[in-house]
Design goal:
Number of domains: 1
Largest sheet: 4 strands, parallel
Distance between the termini: 35 Å
Strand order of the largest sheet: 1-3-5-6
CATH topology: Transcription Regulator spoIIAA
Strand content: 15-25%
CATH class: Alpha Beta
Structural class: alpha/beta
CATH superfamily: STAS domain
Order of helices and strands: HEEHEEHEHEH
Radius of gyration: 17 Å
Oligomer: single chain
CATH architecture: 2-Layer Sandwich
Number of strands: 6
């Protein structure tokens, strides 16, 4: 075995711990800021991955969508990966109609969102 082979076999990979912000069943003007503010704040220097968990969200109005877009802008500034976990066909369709699905990294499950960080396909 070549000495360089041994070094690569003992390579240590850093664990990426995501910041996860969980959204409620419904997101509208009455509660969007309550969930959007922590999501925006999580996208800060030193954080590699932020996950917006909308896996239980069945309704999201324009105020919730604005929160996602604001967080994506913040993530872009600081080089943070922002992954959106979304399982509702209704919410996904709303994002598609607005073209927002092209601006966000959307995953159908938390496992897919986390696996994508390790180079696995989503």
């Amino acid at each position: 075995m070549h000495p360089d082979d041994k070094a690569s076999a003992n390579e240590v990979r850093l664990l990426t711990l995501p910041e996860i912000v969980t959204f409620p069943d419904e997101v509208d003007i009455t509660n969007a800021a309550r969930y959007g503010a922590p999501l925006f704040g999580a996208c800060r220097p030193g954080v590699a991955l932020v996950v917006a968990d909308l896996s239980q969200t069945e309704f999201c109005d324009s105020s919730g969508i604005r929160c996602l877009l604001a967080a994506q802008g913040q993530a872009d500034i600081f080089g943070v990966k922002l992954h959106i976990v979304l399982s509702s066909a209704v919410v996904l369709r709303a994002l598609e109609l607005l073209g927002v699905d092209q601006l966000l990294d959307i995953y159908p499950t938390m496992a897919a969102a986390l696996d994508s960080v390790n180079g696995a396909s989503s």
